[in-house]
Amino acid sequence: MTVRDEPGDVPVRRTAQLTRYDEYAVTVPRADDRAVVAVPHGVTPSAVVYYLHGRTGDERSIDDRFGLRDGLLDAGYVVAAPYLHGDLWGNRRAQDAVVALDEWVSQRWPVTRRFLIGESMGGNAAANAVRLREVAWDGLVLVAPSLSLRAVWELGEHGRDTVRDAFGPAADGHDLEPRTAGWDAVRHHPEDYAGVPIRVYASSEDEVANIAGVTGPWVEMLRRDSVSVELVEVSGEHVSEDHFRTAEVVDFFETLR
Fold first, then answer.
1. SS3 at position 40
2. Is-contact 85 71, C-beta < 8 A?
């Protein structure tokens, strides 16, 4: 475990609200996956938030969401962001990375509450993490989530490339559904999420995370089975600034601690 920075003196890191924190760049041994972990000073952290990045992102994508990271640090959370071995849409290898990172964090800080934030592709990864129950999750926030692998396939070639890498369907996609069975959030069962409160931020202007055709019906499917899920409709295109409502996310997690 090393403090993430250039060689030399360890920098003093502060949030916009002047909370001091340490930031670590790690390679988690059991998963051989990179991660960035930020830990606030002055508290004994009892809760951790895992941020799962979108497509083309990595563990450093949390830097692009510095407002969200800082707000969580100000509230006393450990914030951890894995690489997920790249653009694997939450497949088995990506899930192993999440579990291994949680084990690593839990050995170093006395966390008893665990929360997930999944952005775009990371939304599918987070949904599958909840479904698998390999970590005891206390709450989930989805930001412009891509919950349908068929919808991703139909959007274009680069999305298809990543889905092929993650699940191995044929080039023409004829076997996409059987290849992704169990891993496609839009085809999950509501009981997969029972007991885990969920909040979703989505926009009707977002053509990637389709609120009318995918996200909205997914939310309604869960609600019909009495799963606790909120849909907050925001403005703007995919992962617009309005999707990242830090104070609301912090308040949501605080009600679950």
1. strand
2. no
Phi-psi bin for 89: left (phi > 0), alpha (psi -120 to 50), beta?
left
pTM (2 decimals)?
Answer: 0.95
Residue 167 and residue 179 in contact, taking contact as beta carbons nearer than 8 Å: yes
Dmax of the chain from CA atoms? 56
- pLDDT tens for 71-101 read 999 999 999 999 999 999 999 999 999 999 9
Contacts for 207 with CB less than 8 Å, ≥ 6 apart: 237, 238
Q: Could you tell me which residues come within 8 angstroms of residue 174 by beta carbon, excluding any fewer than 6 positions away?
A: none
Helix axes 246-254, 66-74, angle to 10 degrees: 40
Measured distance CA(143)–CA(54) in Å, rounded: 10
Instruction: Please state, in angstroms and rounded to a whole number, the distance separating the CA atoms of residues 155 and 137.
Output: 31
Find out whether 130 and 52 touch, Cβ atoms under 8 Å.
no
Q: Are 202 and 215 in contact (CB under 8 A)?
A: yes
